[in-house]
């Protein structure tokens, strides 16, 4: 199994969620996040005093899927989250050793 | 004086204006409250609110009498109407309105003036130090200054600034804004800089609150300026329209400067420009034409947008720019009378641009220098005395934690309920035990009681 973590622009969350649902992914975890990449945030001005705001708001989205689906899901997320502008985010895949559904005790594939 | 001289329209206008001016203090609380950080918004609002309490009491007991009751050398009144003695009688009339209407109207000015000062010492002034300062400064500075600027004895004499120097201050550019701005500078210097000033981010925590506050200030300011006519007539109409003209133009003036200097027209700049315009037109609203007011507004907005940077150059932490907006804005408006004043307006004085010579300009400058220096010196001494006795500045640790928690045991927003559970029996909300007799349902009753006391 794989854990796919995506950090995307907050307004793209709904597009990604819909795309993943269409693909057949049944659940996900979403967290509000903030951070920066190459763009290094932005500048704000208050009565002439300039502030560098390094951390910009993002959402962090996590799904666990079967190994064979990883590259497809990666594609789905990238396509849905892409605006082509700076700050679109990152998606990465990490291996998952085991997973248990808390309610039933089912393990791995059955627990997804 | 008899009842016959009371004019219902004038009285209604002054009472409504008094209520409008009152609204400016809560408006100021929002304006200032939005500009500070999350951890000090309540204290900022409380500093405005407490002036309503302290100054109202002072005003009734001695303030009105010292300001508008009789005259001693053109600088202060006396105790002839202390406690508003005799002023609830039907024959207590000032001009065409009951004297009490004037008492109420002027009270609102006395309330907001010290409240304006508080913006200079955001986040770091002890609440009791502030209360003591408000009481002392209002007594020693506001009452005599307002007397000097506005008191008329009915025979052409009165306060030395208004009737001696003959400086014009229609609604308080000198008595309110330069007065408060100079005191703000003194306090900012005595209390010192906030922890982390120019290093830590101190962004306004809520610009919508700032805009709400600026809107309420703008609305209330019509009472401030047009109410100062004390009659519902031409003068009120002229000052009303001039107020709108200058304020609108000042928004544009501030935003132009911002756009050129920083590349963006900001919301805070819009709100600040509005307040700068309101401040500037205050002394001049009875002396200018509407076009003159537009010119004053755009100039005042532009100058104040530059003036708020002064603190960085001069190194004093006037947290919310009381000096840049009120002292500078008040000065600009007051001096503008010397340039843009026209005899056709209610104040009936020609300025330089209308062939009146430089005389009025000199009188305006002199009046503001006297008031500014007096207010600065007395505020400086008072702040030092308070700091040395009961303490005026809170401890560094408390400032870092947040003055709302230290002074008021509250926080403005509940961002995260976790970790804020009820503590101790005194804070537990108890559910009343059921009224049914114990015999009827002993088990249920016992469990409910237990639950109620848990």
UniProtKB/TrEMBL annotation, chain A:
It comes from Kribbella italica. Gene3D superfamilies: 3.30.70.120. Coiled coil: none annotated. The keyword Amino-acid biosynthesis does not apply. SUPFAM superfamilies: GlnB-like. GO terms for molecular function: ATP binding; enzyme regulator activity. One of its GO terms (cellular component) is cytosol. InterPro entries: N-reg_PII, N-reg_PII-like_a/b, N-reg_PII/ATP_PRibTrfase_C, N-reg_PII_CS, N-reg_PII_urydylation_site. SMART domains: P-II (SM00938). Pfam families: P-II. The keyword Coiled coil does not apply. This is Nitrogen regulatory protein P-II. Belongs to the P(II) protein family. GO terms for biological process: regulation of nitrogen utilization. The modification O-UMP-tyrosine is found at residue 51. Keywords: Nucleotide-binding, Phosphoprotein, Transcription, Transcription regulation. Homotrimer.
